[in-house]
Amino acid sequence: MVFAGVLLFLGVFLVSSLSATERLSLEDAVVEALANNQDIQVARGEREISSNNVNIGNAGLLPKIDLVGSMNYQDNEKTSSPGFNEFTTTSVTLQANYTLFDGLGNIYTFRKLKSAGKIGRFQARNTIEGVILEVSEAFYKFANATEQVVVAEEALAISRDRLERARLRAEYGQANTLEVLSASVDVNADSVSWKDAMLDMHNANRALNLLLNRPVDTSLSVKKDVSFDKNLRREEVLQGAKQSFSAYLIARESVKQAEYELGIKRADFFPEVGVQVGYGFSNTETGFDAGTDDLSGDFSAALTLDFNLFNGFQSSINSQNARIELQNKKLLEQKALSELEKQVADTWQEYLNNLDILEFQKKNLETAELNFRRSKELYVLGQLTTTAFREAQLNLIDARKSIASAGYDAKILELRLKRFAGKLVTEEDAVGSDSR
Predict the structure, then answer these.
(1) Could you tell me the CATH number of the domain that includes residue 114?
(2) Does the global pTM surpass 0.70?
C-alpha cells in the first residue's frame, strides 16, 4: 500500500510537470513546421527558382544587346611610304540582335518555361504536404506514446498493489509463496513494459522536435483530443484530388511539357529570320596610338536568314523522339489517374474501417472495465484466482492501449484524405509569407 502511495505521488508529480510544459496542439505544430522546417524552406526556395525562370528572356523573346570595343594595331612592313607602315584602329560599337521568326520555337520555349514553373509549384506543394503529414503522424505517434505510458503506469500500479496484497495475505497464512512469486513476476513484466513505453515516448518526442526544428531534447506536451470531420465524402475527395493533388497535377502538366517540346523540335524545320542593328565609332591613327579625339560614327543594319538544309537527320530524329515522349507522358498521366483513384478508394475504405474499429474498441473498453472491477472485488474477497485476475487486468490494459491507437490511426487516415482533396495545406501556406 505504501508503494502504491508513492506511485500515486509520482503520477501527480508527472502530471503537474506536464501541465507546466506548453501543451502543443496539432494546429500549433503545423504552423511551427511551416515556419521552421528545413525541408519546407528548401521547397519554397526551389519553387521561387522555378518561378524566376519563367521569363521571356530565357525563351529568346527579347533582343540581345552588346557593347563591343576593340583596338587593332598593325605593322605592315611592305608599305614603302615612310611613317605609314604601322597604324592603330580603335572602335566602339553598340550592337542589337533580335530573332524575328524561328518556327515559333521561342514561343513554345516560353510556354514550356511557364509549364515548368507550374510543376515547380506543384512539387513544392507536394513536398510541403508530405512534411505536414509527417508532422501530423509524429504528433499523434507522440500522443499515443504518452497514452501508452499512462496505461503502462496504471498496469504497474495494479500489479504492485496485487503484490502488496499477496505479501500481506502470505503473512497471515491466507496465501502461499506461489501467489507471491506470481505477483512478483507480473510486476517485473509490467516494469519492463513501462520502461519500453517510456523509451518510445522519448523517441517520439525527439522525432517531433526534429520535424519542428527544435532542440531534439525539448520536453513536449501535446493536446491529445481527437475529433473527426463528419463532412468528408468520398466523391468530393476524389474530385478534389483530380483538381488539387500535387502528384497527379505534375503528371498532367508533364503532358503539356511534352507538347511544347514537340513544338520546339518541329521549329528546326523552319528558317530562322533575324535582324541586326549597330551603331559605332571608329578612328585610325598612325603608329601605336589609341586615339579617341577624332572618332567617326556609322550606322549598320542587316536582315539575316538561316535555314538548315541537312544536318544528318538530327531534326527528324528529335521530332520523332518528341512525339514518342508525348505519347509516353499521356500514358503516364492515365496511369497516375488510375493510381490516384485506387489510393483514394483504399484510404477511404481503411478510414471507414478504422472508425468502425474505434467504436468496437469503445464498447470493448466498457466491457473490460466492468469485468476488471468485478474481478477485483472477487479477488479482494479471495473468490478469484490470481490467474483470472491477471487475465482481467491484461484485457483492460489491452483495451485501453487499442482504443488510443485506433483513434490516432483513424485521424491520420482522415488527414491523408484531406491531402488528396487539397485541404491539408492552403496555397498561402505553400508559398510562405517571405516569398516574392
Answers:
(1) 1.20.1600.10
(2) yes
